[in-house]
Amino acid sequence: MFAQTALRQRCAKWLIATGLFLLLGACVDKPSTLERVKEDGVLRVITRNSPATYFEDRNGETGFEYELVKRFADDLGVELKIETADNLDDIFASLGQPSGPVIAAAGLVSSEKRKLEARFSHPYLEVTPQIIYRNGKSRPTDAKDLVGKRIMVLKGSSHAEQLAELKKQYPALQYEESDAVEVVDLLRMVDEGQIDLTLVDSNEVAMNQVYFPNVRVAFDLGDARDQRWAVALGDDNSLLNEINDFIDKVQKNGTLQRLKDRYYGHVDVLGYVGAYTFAQHLQQRLPRYEKHFRTSAKDEQVDWRLLAAIGYQESMWQPAVTSKTGVRGLMMLTQRTAEAMGVSNRLDPQQSIKGGAKYFMYMKSQLDDDIEEPDRTWFALAAYNVGSGHLDDARKLAKQEGLNPNKWLDVKKMLPRLSQKQWYRKTRYGYARGGEPVHFVANIRRYYDILTWVTQPQLEGSQVADSNLHVPGVDKTKPTEQAPQL
């Protein structure tokens, strides 16, 4: 009996101890959001697939928001995982979801309505909402001029909220919200006259205006506002505090300003610089590097004038140039490409030309075997500019449209669609400035044709050996006009 009593007492003590242990365990705080990020080793971020936020080009992942959030992930010592949302509503809906993104970095502006959906960081970029119209049309000068116009904005955007408030003052004001477009689509639609007006932020206008010659700023609608990152609602401030400390730091140390200057300080302009300027550079610059073009061309079995045309399009034969995206040298190689091609000094013109020649031929070798010349050369040039992934996307779009994915004339029609949301949302690699490779190839063809014409007599003399190299699309016994049209 005594033994049974003692056993019951021990069991009771064990049960009490177990209960206390479980109770204490339940009282232990769950790890904070910041702690979970560090434990997982991954920072999950949601953004928009657009030129001002995140996209892929020949240098890899890029975009203002991407660059900034990548630095934040590096500061935390974790890997960055980017997710793109189909529309703005999805961005806010995804925050706080299990295993979902913990930050929205998508060019967002805080508003009273949005404060009900998320919490916002310190500001990092000041932008101004601008009414955009088409050059040649009547320019609106104030809000009342918007009445009676065809206006479209992004669905769920702060601009839609602005117009909703404006409609209270001007009930006749009509506008459409769409989640099937991005800012570049809106600017294109104004440029082409499909809509009369749109409302977008000043930074996106500055970045994209060069691609839309008819786009003009009518006036600023309201005061400048701040873009901020967003996190989920709740009482856990760990991640938000870390974000704010980071933004304050990059503002003070100049990192943020350098990013602003890089993406918005100036805009690349593609295009033909003029026959007179090119003729000057033929006389003054090309002679310094012609022997390097010839040597590399012979090594890689490609026409030296094609390499020279690429070099002119990339740098205007300037060996020390550096672009805002960090590509450098006469052939404008990325650091990664230079290393892969065995280039140790991108500013050495001989190394740069050799690396550019090898890279061009590498891109050419990666193309499908059923792509024949001269299209194979034009495809390789496009891939040199925009990357093989985006080129493959354009070829697939061409095939879907019943066009020939192996013909440049067909694929170049599809490349600009990679900057339109209705198309790039269906592709593997997403947004790209698809118009750039079209201009890139066309410009190189112009320079190449001039070089071929200027140097044609040399083929009959001491440089006859070069005539055995492949000249894409050109019959050397005929004028260069025999080359296929772009």
Given the structure, what is the number of helices? 19
Summing up helix and strand content along with how strands pair, one would put the structural category as alpha/beta
- Compute the average pLDDT: 86
User: Would you identify the regions where 5 or more consecutive residues have pLDDT less than 50?
Assistant: 23-27, 266-273, 457-486
N-to-C CA distance: 103 Å
Number of strands: 13
Computed CA radius of gyration, to the nearest angstrom: 29 Å
**Assembly state:** single chain
Helix fraction bin: 40-55%
Taken as a percent bin, the fraction of beta residues is 5-15%
Largest sheet: 6 strands, mixed
Summarize the structure in words:
This protein is an alpha/beta fold and 486 residues long. The protein has helices at 2-27, 33-40, 64-76, 88-94, 158-169, 183-191, 202-208, 238-252, 255-264, 275-284, 286-300, 304-315, 335-340, 349-365, 375-386, 388-400, 408-414, 421-424, 435-455; strands at 42-47, 55-57, 60-62, 79-84, 103-109, 119-120, 125-127, 129-134, 151-154, 176-178, 197-201, 215-220, 225-231. The strands form 3 sheets. Strands 1, 4, 5, 6, 7 and 13 form a 6-stranded mixed β-sheet that branches. It has a 5-stranded mixed β-sheet with strand order 10-9-11-8-12. Helix 15 packs across helix 16 (388-400). The chain is globular, with a radius of gyration of 29 Å. The model is unreliable at 23-27, 266-273 and 457-486 (pLDDT under 50).
